[in-house]
Amino acid sequence: MPTGAHTKETPGQQHDRIEPVQAHDRIFGHSAKGTPGSREDHAATNRSVNTEVVLISVSANNSLGSVGALWRYPVKSMLGEELNATSVGTRGIFGDRIYAIVDPDSGKVASAKNPKKWPHLFDCRAAFVDPPESSGDFPPVRVTLPDGRITRSDEGGFNDAISAMLGRAGKLQTAVPDKPVLEEYWPDIEGLDLRDAVTDEDLPEGTFFDVGMVHVLTTATLDSLRAVYPDGRFEVRRFRPNIVIKTPADEKSFLENTWVDRTLMIGDEVRLKITMDCGRCVMTTLAQADLPKDPGILRAAAQHNQAHVGIYADVEQAGMIRRGDAVRVE
Fold first, then answer.
1. What is the largest CA-CA distance in the chain?
2. Nearest to 330, CA basis, from 310, 316, 318
3. pLDDT per residue as tens digits for the range 215-234
4. What does pTM read for this prediction?
5. Strand, coil or helix: what is 171?
6. What DSSP state is assigned to residue 164?
7. End-to-end alpha-carbon separation of the chain, Å?
8. How is the chain split into domains, by residue range?
9. Buried residues in 19-35 as b, exposed as e (16+ CB within 10 A)
10. How far, in Å, CA of 41 to CA of 305, rounded?
11. Relative orientation angle of helices 219-228 and 295-305, to the nearest 10 degrees
12. Which of 21, 116, 185, 309 is the most buried (most CB within 10 A)?
């Protein structure tokens, strides 16, 4: 396997070998940083939201609902795997975005945020060969290529197969560049900070994450987007969250907009500090499996919620989370 593998920060209690669920494509509810114009700058300076649709209605004990789905993406910008349960450490969901493809010439991290440069990256699915354990190096990954062929990162010829599929050189690695950077294409959609432009975006030091360690999304937000753009298929997999919170069916608002700087309590152990809104990008519009390409997805988010869908969080208290766990906010 590639060198430089990370080891997991042990969260108070060890939980080994968490098995992914079998239905990787289950559809829930349905069959950078501080520089002007960057996503973090946009979120920090645009906290106000559409008051006509942003309302919060929680019970007296601040119960929001329950964990409806858990997702991990072993390789950045590839499709991931759905989990029944997972441990959460200071680095987020165990094994999330631990690998990435890196351009050996520029040193930049390959990302579907620039789909013209990396057009087939988002057509690949990655999963760990074995469930990762709470100590030691992460296991190799198994990548299903767009044509259905399967290749493993611990087998000879893996990078050659990936490079041939991508049409340009790429190397899978866990070692994060000293100053990780990716390229992002901003489509020509009204409401985005930039239009029809490509920018360099810094990633958090030592990680392959875009901004935050954990990405949270509610079904209330998906339902709100469906209401304003009924022709769009607002499915969880378009937005690549780690945690989907199933909220009451009658809750149709951009609920998580109100949670920035608050704490989410999930199950008996995990506590997440909400840091910022999640600004969306061109990846939400891309085709994947049976989902069609649809710029209207991002356009609806831009027009009705300042291009925010979901929130980012840091881990205040590590532990175990499972589908069905209760979620509260304080």
1. 57
2. 316
3. 999 999 999 999 999 999 99
4. 0.83
5. strand
6. H
7. 42
8. 39-329
9. ebeeebeeebeeebeee
10. 16
11. 100
12. 309
One-letter amino acid identity for 117? K
How do residues 106-165 score in pLDDT, each as one tens digit? 999 999 999 999 999 999 999 999 998 876 789 999 999 999 999 999 999 999 999 999
* Count of helices and strands (H, E) across the chain: 5, 18
Quote the CA–CA distance of 128 and 98 in Å, as a whole number. 11
- Cα(42)–Cα(308) distance, integer angstroms: 10
Q: Three-class SS of residue 160?
A: helix
Contact 124, 135 (CB under 8 A): no
What is the spatial distance between Cα 101 and Cα 85, in angstroms, rounded to a whole number?
A: 26
- Cα separations in angstroms, 24 against 37, 100, 253, 321: 35, 20, 27, 18
Contacts by residues 289-297 (CB-CB < 8 Å, ≥ 24 positions apart): 289/25, 289/79, 289/237, 291/233, 291/235, 291/237, 291/238, 292/233, 294/232, 294/233, 295/187, 295/189, 296/229, 296/231, 296/232, 297/225, 297/229, 297/232, 297/233, 297/234, 297/238
Closest of 98, 83, 298, 328 to residue 213, by C-alpha: 98
Give phi and psi for 282, each to the nearest 5: -65, -25
Q: What is the pLDDT of residues 64-121, one digit of tens each?
A: 899 999 999 999 999 999 999 999 999 999 999 999 999 999 999 999 999 999 999 9
Distance CA 235, CA 28 (A): 7
